[in-house]
Amino acid sequence: MLKSKTFVKKTRSGGIMKIVREHYLRDDIWCGSEVCTECKQEETVLQKDTYIESNLCSFPHYLLPDTNIVLSQIDILEDPLIKNVIILQTVLQEVRHRSAPIYKRLKDILHDKEKHFYTFTNEHHRETYIEREQGESANDRNDRAIRISTKWYSDHLNNTPTDKRLKVVLLTNDRGNKEKAEESGLYSDIIVHRLLAVAIGADSTYPDLMDKHKQSALCNNLNYRHKMAQYAQRASVAYHTQLFFKSRGILNEEGFILFVRKNAIIVLIPKFGLEGTVFFENKDKPSPKLIFNEEAPSLTVEGHSFNMFDKVKVTISLDASNVQHQKIRMSLVEPVISGVSVAPSEPEPEVKRAKLDR
Ligand SMILES: [Zn+2]
């Protein structure tokens, strides 16, 4: 798959420059683990038995250090005891830019068959490559890339049979990265890397945390609570959105296309900060002629082409036909496409409003 990004930039002299960036993403980059049954790899680097003389991690695991850990703890990484480590391409590149001697030492470890250090080319992997977001520094982007890859590995290795399951432990000493990792639910890893920090004498901790059973229980509890909090948050947003639109009947609003899909457009309504999907395929009527262009990207519906950021008009309503599963529905009003768009709704009678003010 080719990902290309075109944008125009104003040069210092006031001219306009068109920049095209191309990046090839692949889906034949393997995880390198012996336990994996999904990847079609001929050789593996990461072992299925990852026993380390350590009571810090009670579970079998692979370590995934970030750039700063490699730069500051290369001695430890060189220790014969440390095996089965994932080195991301992002980390390798950053280390190369920041310290030639440490880069050399890291390359030596990677070549040492006994060490089982695996380079994962995350920057070319379809599922772990990320683009720098607006306002995001190169550094923050790389930290995010490392978190995304850690998450990918965790999820990927979760597909293996339970008795062989391995965890991926992100090693970081960066506070910001740690906090963001916490947001994405990598709590256990945080606890574990704190403990590793204790082990290498970089930090101190409560004696209780050195007990692997107590530690495991703590991690499980943190992760459970975090997951539940996320569910509650999502459900609450959905509930209040539905309550809001329930008393308002069918609304006509202006919006902008955020994404186009094969059979739908995702519309943002700035007035409500609401995102919704306008589907062009309906169970009960014949589908209009749809042409999806992935490269643009654009979606042509009966000859009308939709592009990102196009302005549209939609109706918003609450579909309560299934009480168990009420949904916000959006339908296209403008542009008018015969057989596809709907007529704008009539303004609601005032009676309903009065009821709401009570
Ligand atoms: Zn795999």
UniProtKB/TrEMBL annotation:
Residues 61-179 form the PIN domain. GO terms for biological process: nuclear mRNA surveillance of mRNA 3'-end processing; rRNA catabolic process. It comes from the Eukaryota. One of its GO terms (molecular function) is 3'-5'-RNA exonuclease activity. Transmembrane segments: none annotated. InterPro entries: NA-bd_OB-fold, PIN-like_dom_sf, PIN_dom, RNR_Ribonuclease, RRP44_S1. One of its GO terms (cellular component) is cytoplasmic exosome (RNase complex). PANTHER family: EXOSOME COMPLEX EXONUCLEASE RRP44, RIBONUCLEASE. This is DIS3 homolog, exosome endoribonuclease and 3'-5' exoribonuclease.
